[in-house]
Amino acid sequence: MKNNFIKKIDKVIINQTLEDDFTALDAELESLGYNIDEINSFSEKMYKRQSFLLKGMINKQKDINLLERASLMLQKAIEENIDKPVSYLKSLIQNNQFQVQYRNLENLTIDEIKEIIKDQNLLELLEKLENED
């Protein structure tokens, strides 16, 4: 119990120090021979790098989700034989270098549909498909 109490006091002191004044910490680091400007510069670079990587991961996941959604909608349109989405998919296939491979739309798998539409503007495609429903 005494250890927990001491740990809580230490935590409060550290948090108070961090919230109130960085100058005391900077002075302590400088007294130990550290260059505060280098530390700040390195911290800023690492923050920007991590922020950039995180944004990239988020955007990639959004693209994957959009591609999945569009693929499922196109597959549903093929199964239900809805004219406009099917004709749009056929036009994409004609522009695709693998057009011989995709002759029978009914036999397309989700992965094949993804391959066909992956270079398209997915937001525009989804809007077209949703307007058809």
Note down, in words, how this protein is organized.
The structure is a single chain. This protein is an all-alpha fold and 133 residues long. The chain has helices spanning 2-20, 22-31, 36-80, 83-95, 110-117, 122-132. It folds into two domains: 2-57, no CATH class; 62-132. The chain contains six helices and no strands. The radius of gyration is 28 Å and the shape is elongated.
Radius of gyration: 28 Å
How far apart the termini lie comes to: 64 Å
Helix-strand pattern: HHHHHH
Structural shape:
elongated
Low-confidence stretches: none
* Class inferred from helices and paired strands: mainly alpha
pLDDT averaged residue by residue:
78
The number of distinct structural domains comes to 2
Portion in beta strands: under 5%
Instruction: Provide a count of the helices.
Output: 6
Q: Could you tell me the number of beta strands? A: 0
How helix-rich are the residues, as a percent range? over 70%
Topology of helices and strands:
Layout: H1 2-20, H2 22-31, H3 36-80, H4 83-95, H5 110-117, H6 122-132
Helix pairs in contact: 3-5, 3-6
Short description:
With 133 residues, this protein is an all-alpha fold.
Can you give keywords for this protein?
6 helices; elongated; 133 residues; 2 domains; mainly alpha
